[in-house]
## 1
Amino acid sequence: MRILIIGSGGREHAIAWAFHRSSTPTTLFIAPGNGGTHQVGTNVELDISRAEEVVRFVEDTGIELVVIGPEQPLVDGLADTLRRVGTPVVGPSAAAARLEGSKAFSKDFMQRHGIPTAAYRSFERDQLDDALAFVRTEGAPIVVKASGLAAGKGAIVCETLKDAEAALMDLLGEGLLGDAASTVVVESFMHGEEASLFVLTDGQDFVLLPTAQDHKRIGEGDTGPNTGGMGAYAPAPVMTEDLIREAVTRIVQPTLTGMQSEGYPYQGILYVGLMITPDGPKVVEYNCRLGDPETQVVLPMLDCDVVQLFHGLATGTLNSVNVAVHQGASACVVMASAGYPGAYEKGKDIHGLDADNTDDCIVFHAGTRKTDVGWVTSGGRVLAVSARGQNLKEALDKAYGRLSRITFEGATFRRDIGHKGLERTDQLL
């Protein structure tokens, strides 16, 4: 099967890796890919923001399946364009992708369909004074979110009223994050533990992938600014079987039914970010694609043909595919450039990537580039070292052990990935 994967991050390397290991014979193309994806497929210099360029490549190359990794092309309607020319594609329509592309839309949608989430209000750029008055009435802690896409950095948890006022001034007053923050959602702070639930749906049927928990903050102890993600593990021990069933009943099924009833059926990957509160699971946010770095722990846990799974999703035959999962757990630790998520330098030599990947320990590339003399950094998040073990501790030990043999100037990573999972696992013993 000839497959095109859209994207350039660690998520896309993980998807390509899983497809490469499939029992289904594949020829993989990744656009634009990264330094690691060329090891399992062919990188293609396509402007993925130009749908006509992608369609031309698909038709000229005989592509039989397209998997869209990042959110922006989905929000821009790339999946719609590909479906119109008859290409099976993993990714929702632009109308359905508004669940991620507009937090204001998703919050209103949840309110219409009785889906549990935090109380909220939305404000436009000319309503700064109203927004400030609202947070002064509500008090802190409170959460301020850019409604549009902000690369995982648009949600600001404000511990004090002063923080909330500053966030609103930055987003609505100063135009920080640009059009992504032309509308801002202010919502009540939810107490609990976060987890990620991944749903694959072909528009009729759906299956669940292993749950996961990621680490968004740059600093240990969950401190510092939000990032795209500094590590993850799967499954998330906080998500018991009872909680998964409750999330499916109260959130997943009403979401899919609601999208269908409003005229934009959801076909693709629905990532539900959950907060496990004393009142049960509530939605923090929806994403319209796999997460990064969650993909780097979820896909290694699958013990089935991932190509057939994704093809079934894209062709409406998901009910004919079985999902099998390895026993144990997986974990990954992200290595980032100094300064990330702020300004960072590129072009730092990377050492220690010469060891081969194994089935249970893989280095997924994100911000890397191969030169004539070796590997160099080319992004904020550079690598994700992922491992699978009989339990979470073993998976983490393997990941950190492999990471210890990789170096580059200014490399930064968290040393406490999985700490909540380890604590909860210990409580269950």
## 2
Amino acid sequence: MSKESNKNISATLATATCALLGGTIAQPVQAQEEPGWDFNTSLLYYGEDEDRIQDLSVSVLARRTFQDDRWMTLGLTVDGLTGASPNGGLQQSTAQTFTQPSGNNTFTAAAGTLPIDDTFRDTRVAVNASWQQPLGRLYNLNVGASASNEFDYLHLGVNAKISRDFNKRNTTVSAGLAFSSDTIDPEGGAPSPLTSMQNVGDLGNRIGEQDKDIVDVVLGVTQVISRNLIMQANYSFSDSSGYLNDPYKIVAVVDGVTGDVVPNALPPGISGPSHEYIFESRPDSRTKHSFYNQAKYFMGGKVLDASYRYMTDDWDIDSHTLDLRLRWPINDKSYLEPHLRFYTQSEAEFYQIGVVDGSPLPAYASSDYRLGDFDAITVGLKYGWEMRNGNDMSVRLELYQQRGDIPGDRLIGNQVGLVEYPDLDAIVFQFSYQFGR
């Protein structure tokens, strides 16, 4: 499992925190608050079926309010991750042995099972800080920084956003810019793309530590339509460059007639892969365009929150996300909030389940199921209440299901009925407690 992907999982879930924050509608201007601290804490569990990724996450978000509408926000998240995900290998009618990513040992996948190395363990620590203040009467400025660290991945980022109110503060136009520089340093070094999986102790195809940079630009407008309706529209541009491979994902080398993974002849006394696999190769740049719309509608005490996002990139991936939430008051102290989210995407142009032995290698190839054609649905329910001391608590339970498809005309020989898209079922549980001032 890519530890880079694990980083992203702890917020799939937290797979969506950045997207949710980026899409949140600006709140109406409020009266000046008294200076002081308030805190939002949460405990989140994310668990995939079949002993795949398990994530236990603790986070604290603290906000300090100052005079003159100035805010400082500090955040800390700690994730404990275990398990693994499919490494790109194919199910076979015989057992398969793989060299572990470190190059120091092997693991074996039983016949008819999806190759998964379940020895993964990691801890991720992430921090962020931001400062917001008005610039004159109609402008607001927000600047921030973020950092996270795990066993083989370091992220450093900065961001800034400026907004201006128009039309008696019923219209807000904003522009944001973010830059991040990430370092990927897998144990033993990142593998050279499209090179063969090596025997234990052989690190001759490793190219060491790698870097990537990401620049994001967001332009948005928020409009109060009526007393009961507020809407927002955003355009986002993202440019990634550098090492964009997943150093833990592989691609099978298959027989052009049978579709079976080509066996690997090991010298006596040598441990290594039983079949031929190569490390994936992705382009060293990626440009994404996203269009996001959100509306919040007040209906006699209930609030409907609906959003839609369309994303397209130069890897030929197009995605659609529809998100619906309904905050339903039970009384003046508690509420229920059902949640429904649907996501669908097309596959990357270089996604393939294997390369044919003896044919020229493509420039780019990946069997990472996250780059495939799939649909996903999230169904959940949140219950929140106000305690006697005025603090807020909530619990959230969600079920996530992901289903993909590999067209039959893409399968060769024995792959029919054996090689399938690695479907996924997961559960999310979150407990939150907000207190202060």
